[in-house]
Amino acid sequence: MRSRIFSRSRKMIVASTLAIALALGGGATAFMLTSESANAQITVPSVAPSAGFADLVAAVKPAVVSITVDGQEKVQNSSQYYFNFPDLPPDNPLRRFFDQFGPDMGQGPGNGPNGQPPVRKFVAAGSGFIISGDGYVVTNNHVVENAQKVTVVYDNGEEHSAKIIGTDPRTDLALLKIDGASNLPFVKLAENEVRVGDWVVAVGNPFGLGGTVTAGIVSARGRDLNSSTYDDFIQIDAAVNRGNSGGPDFNLSGEVVGVNTAIFSPNGGNVGIAFAIPAATVKQVVEQLKTHGSVTRGFLGVGIQDVTKDIADSMSLPNTKGALVTNLTDGAPAGKAGVKSGDVIVGVDGKDIANARDLARTIANYAPGSTVDISILRDGKKQDIKVTLDTLKDQQVAQNDQTQPTQPDQPVVSSVGLTLVPNSDGAGLLIQDIDPNSTAASKGFAVGDVILEADNKAVASPQDFENAISGVRDSGRSTILIKASRNGQIRFIGLPLTDTSKQ
After folding, report:
1. Residue 337 banded pLDDT, cuts 50, 70, 90
2. Is-catalytic flag, 182?
3. N or C: which end of the chain has fewer CB within 10 A?
4. How far is the C-alpha of 326 from the C-alpha of 341, rounded, in Å?
5. Which is nearest to 173 in space by CA: 73, 28, 8?
6. Taking the mean position of all CA atoms in its chain, how far away is CA 17?
7. Which of 104, 134, 168, 172 is catalytic?
8. Buried residues in 348-357 as b, exposed as e (16+ CB within 10 A)
9. DSSP class of residue 406?
10. SS3 30
11. At residue 32, does pLDDT exceed 70?
12. Is residue 104 annotated as a catalytic residue, yes or no?
């Protein structure tokens, strides 16, 4: 049984700077349930929690299915399955001994027939739900990934084969079609967003048991698991386990408000924290999968991060709203339209942007080719820039402009506790050492970071860096904005100029 489990041992949530080439959203319209069997749509009366959920469950359960998958996948690191005896000749007795335990045993890890990675067959189980009378089924991408055969099992035990219409790994959604289906009972996706505290009923196939019902409430919204740009999960406390993946969460009107996709668990079992994809996201993705078999997304071509209080202070911003542009992809729409690194995107077509992920989700509502008005703050002034979105391609990655700096004679200790030397591999100043008692150390700077700009000015020497600090102090500001790079990822840091090492 396949499911996504986020645990401490598997690094459930990894904090990282959001530096992305925005792959943003489908421009899809709301998904309409259109089929000749519209009279099969399930109608559920409003249910009071005190009356229990039996009537609700009886109405929606026929539309919830179990999914079994037969598939195979390449074993990328086969050392856990095969012994490594690469030097044994074919006629060696030990080679023949190990070959009896399986094909390719003794060829070394990662080597199958003809030198290809060995293939592992698997059987997986998950959940799904029918959204139209002619047999369209929603589930998770990770449930059907690498599938060779997909079987849908109805609540009454009937089994039917299904084909994969399309998948979207970025949102972990997949759309299936049951072969030869007609006049099936189906459920609809909710139009209204759930609220924290609303009741939800989860129906699915945990541990392959099928037809299992649990209930709980919406615990939180807008959860970010750092699994993709589009993380905007509903958190629920209904019991969700392995095999519930792809199954629906219903409101009291029998509408699907979320699709279960992950759990937080230190031991692999239910601890009352599960995450579901909101119905609004499902509608957008499913419509594109049904129409095109894939999802296309607009491409803005920027790396972005949140605006912290220190960054806001260093830029004299009124608040921390917006998404700070760290870098631009060469030849991408944003750069062509005039967006620059250091700009703060605060609005799209008149909608305020709260942070980096809000920008990602907002742009996700536009199709490639759409022209949008991007509102930015630059040098304290607001301006609008029209940008025509391109189409995201998987290989498109934001790139940094790198030029060769003037080389210094020796490292220099700056007034803020950073020992700096010009970067021999490109632009900027390399941090060679840090005073552990300095403010810079407390703000997350590390040896090996490269300082590219200080106060929006490129720095090629330690003196450039000190001049920028002096300019900030002379202007009456107490925080300087630093543009830095770590392992190719650009980020901005607001560095207060009160050096604790001198206190």
Report:
1. very high
2. no
3. C
4. 5
5. 28
6. 13
7. 172
8. beeeebbbbb
9. P
10. coil
11. no
12. no
Beta bridge partners of 444: none
Q: Which helix or strand (DSSP H or E) is residue 333 part of? A: helix 333-337
Pairing of the two strands 248-250 and 256-264: antiparallel
Q: Which two tokens stand for residue 210?
A: 């099928």
- Cα–Cα distance, 170 to 323 (Å, whole number): 21
Determine contact, residues 282/259, Cβ cutoff 8 Å. yes
Q: Give the pLDDT confidence score for residue 157 in this predicted structure.
A: 93
Please identify which residue in the block is written with the tokens 């959940």. 127
Q: Which of 3, 132, 219, 245 is catalytic?
A: 245
- Reference 4, options 166, 163, 116, 139; nearest CA is 139
User: What residue has token string 């023949």?
Assistant: 96
Distance, CA of 356 to CA of 340 (rounded, Å): 16
264 vs 9, residue with greater confidence: 264
Annotation says 172 is catalytic: yes
The single residue of 3, 35, 78, 142 carrying the catalytic annotation is: 142
**Burial class, 112, CB count within 10 angstroms (exposed 0-12 / middle 13-18 / buried 19+):** middle
Question: What is the rounded CA–CA span in Å between residue 357 and residue 339?
Answer: 18
Cα separation, 88 vs 94, whole angstroms: 8
Structure tokens at 391: 């189409």
CA distances from 222 to 149, 200, 345 (A): 34, 17, 20
Centre a 10 Å sphere on the Cβ of residue 499 and count the other Cβ atoms it contains.
17
For residue range 183-207, what is the model confidence (pLDDT) as tens digits? 999 999 999 999 999 999 999 999 8
Count Cα neighbours of 331 within 13 Å in the Cβ-side half-sphere.
4
**Percentage of the chain surpassing pLDDT 70?**
78
Residue 189 has what DSSP assignment? B
